[in-house]
């Protein structure tokens, strides 16, 4: 009996030569963002590392240039904890780049104690969702100016534990760090899918996709500080090896969503293996809540109100 041939594993080697393209990656100084930046820079992409800490961003640039001396790299200071910083960064970016082929919304935080951003939003929701919503809207015209621009929003398996409460987005009731994180990752997927619907309705060739790294062993924690990072390390150390893989492998679903010509708008990429934590990057499913267009529309309209950013679609 002749079966269907197994799909060949998609690897970093499958990223084509992309000279002349420009990519912007938030949180690219470490983890999967850094790995994605390194691969793209090695394929001729002009890569902008949008990071909170300019010293760490420059150190990441230096590490990439050590293995790819001809890489075209620059840094952009942006603190997702502040919408003022996001607006300033968007202005600086557009002053230098009128065309953005790839926007990878990767930066994020996890396991934060309850607290607020500079603008008064619950931290996970404000940093992981609202800041990226604002940044994408502010630079979207440059993405639309590309021949086939893409926006890739990084999600997480954690979206399955998220639940949006529009009456308590500040999460004043029943807050737990992982619940806050799950809510923000659910919002990321609702945003990615709704952006694709709006791009299609506008009749433009740009695409919005989502991807998640699975159980990538990274320096997660963002603003959590040493205590939060120690908690995350304890969790990672406890997890059995079969569902944890390297940051490089965790970056592959993001890279595939960003550059594979066979992808379609609205797809979600992640690892293929056990619990969708490790394995080759393939199209994966997300829960029903993330696919609800009515919730997505409500979140979109609220996000425009909260950020003051209206999309040019």
From TrEMBL:
GO molecular function, one term: oxidoreductase activity
UniProt entry keywords in alphabetical sequence: Oxidoreductase
InterPro entries: NAD(P)-bd_dom_sf (IPR036291), SDR_fam (IPR002347)
Keyword check for Oxidoreductase: yes
Matching NCBIfam families: PRK05854.1, PRK06197.1
Name of the protein: SDR family oxidoreductase
